[in-house]
Amino acid sequence: MRGFPRDVLLRYRWTDGLDIAQVTVEFVSRGMPGDVETVRGSEIMEIGRGSFSLGHRTIPYHRVLRVLCGTEALYSKKGG
Prior knowledge:
By secondary structure, the protein is mainly β. It has a 4-stranded antiparallel sheet, covered by helices on one side. It has one domain (about 5-75). The chain has one helix at about 5-15, and strands spanning about 25-30, 35-40, 45, 50-55, 60, 65-70, 70-75.
């Protein structure tokens, strides 16, 4: 674990040499198979204080289970 989801997303958005398009975010999404949904970092429109936006909806950080770059976990929720 390398920080909270927001910290990881901001680092990949603004740090030279890193690209948010390389990141995937897994989060709790009721009604999806296994109640988990995955989005690519390139789909994230805005990174806010308490949530991130996909344009058509907002995902609060407390629903984020993992942030991955390839197979490397940049963030993993405890117990998740």
